[in-house]
Design goal:
With 208 residues, this protein is mainly α. It is built from 5 helices and no strands.
Length: 208
Amino acid sequence: MTIINEKTPFYKKRGWQITTIIALVLIILIGGFISSANGLSRKEQDVDAATGGIQTALQNRADLIPNLVNAVKGAQGQESTIYGKIADARTQYNQAKQSYANANDQDQKTTAMQNQDKAFNLMVSTINENYPDLKSSDQIQTLMVQLEGVNNRVTYERKVYNKAVQDYNNKVVSFPSSLVASMTNHHKFNYFTADSSAQQNPTVNFSK
């Protein structure tokens, strides 16, 4: 009686098994790479969104300065030199704003926002140091309340921005996403830091 040897199923062949294992490993690696790359991109988008928030808050705060100046003008005449200083500070602010618009990367945007913050504080300190005593008025009081509100908003948006940057930077430096970051040209971003002369929210005091 002749015994016919059955063929070994293809899935039991060693060569096929090795090929399958290699293919699975490649799929896992490629999937992990794509997942990490997408994660970095999402975190970068969070930073972009937070950048827009802090930029809006900075602009809203700066927009109050002309109103404050006009309110003071209406209450009492002031020397032209004071207005000149405020105009210079506003020029610096607008230049920083233009630098933000022309920024090519996130770090340049952060630097521009910091310069905007510095110029704003220069405007506030100019008003605070140079305006003499003024009689209280509803308009000035309202503007001071608004100023306090936008200062708080800037502080909040700064915290949101720095948290987004922290989350992004953590992915950039953490293994294995750090490998993907180096391959996809993702690098750490700078945090938003307030000007050294403005570690506290600026205030406008019309009754020194």
